[in-house]
Here is the input.
Amino acid sequence: MTRRNFLNKAATAGSIVMLPLPWSDPGQIEDNQNRKVIRDFIEQSFPDRIHPLVGEMQYPFIDPGAAYKGILWDWDAYFSLRGLQPWKEKVGGVAEGCIRNFLDFQRADGSIPYAITKWSKKENGATRPPDSDKNSAKPLMAQFALMAFEYNGKESLLAESYEGLKKHCLHWEESQGTELGLLTFRSHRGSGVDDHPGVYCRPLNSSVDVYLNSMMFREYRTMETIARQVRPTEVSFWEDRAHALQENIEKLLWDPIDQCYYNLDVGYHRPGKVNQEVTWVTPLKFKSWTSLMPFWAGAAAPERASIMVERHLMDESKLLAPAGMRSLARNEPAYEVKISSNPSCWRGPVWVVNNFMVCEGLRAYGFEEAATTIASRITKTLADDIRTNNHLHEYYDPETGKGLTHPGFVNWNTLGAII
Here is the structure.
């Protein structure tokens, strides 16, 4: 087996080589050392973020740390636990507890709060107000349940969760579906990418988001996997949805001129008594990490993934940075690196979660060299923060790797252990 084939096989299997091998070059030795620093730190710190019970939550859960202590967040908890995969025996019950808490708080209309605090109340029989600007939890609850099952092997979990997971998917379709066969965010509230210029402060329900629809595609595929185990008669129900959504992502979100996936503005109003209806859609042209999500989800055509990697991702004037991958391309007018909270800044700084998602997509499409480049840079950023400050931050300066906000934030930085 050649050296390159060995590395590709290890990456595909999710393996992490912790100590330098005899043939390692200096870069690989440094990467291994950085990963060990991160893993040692995470192993010591993650138990402090696990809570047995808070408020009306009846199951253990994990929080992001720092200013977010004691709060269960949707994608934060999911990706934080993804990063704890090397310790899955210790956190399997916590992963199960998180998804059971979310489903416990599910409303009658199928929506789920994207964050649960000590003040959150179960509203049996309630529905979400139709004019609410808050989104339901992101469509990754099925992915969460499947991860929990894979961590602890409790076969009853998927069967007991199935109906709630299905209701959540259908709630997104019914409340946020459009005539284009794509989904919109209600607003930036709970979107996760707080001030993404293609969503933030736009009219409610007006932005068809690449990242949202990619996540839903992956959620449909996960529901298909779960249905094969617990509801075989509904496998085609999810297959058909995934196929239709993939077609619409490829047909409507790809801009053939810029050769990039963009959000769409669907906030136009019917023009009234005129001779022509609006029959076109308008792309919201912001080159962001979210533009790369169709190949994280496995929805992108291979040739388009290749274009995105070469033209946008690995260009240091755009997304690639010394500290990892920027959250918005550096040549965008909206690009800015600053310290902010509510909304947090996603218009330039380096965040670990999107670096991980992009690397996961790169490896799935065979772009091992690009994935290794990004992974090497982001692990150095995290390891340097630990060495210098003995803690981690929420996001980082893309040029210097300096932590910018919320010292003590751990959350999905755990992904540095497996990226």
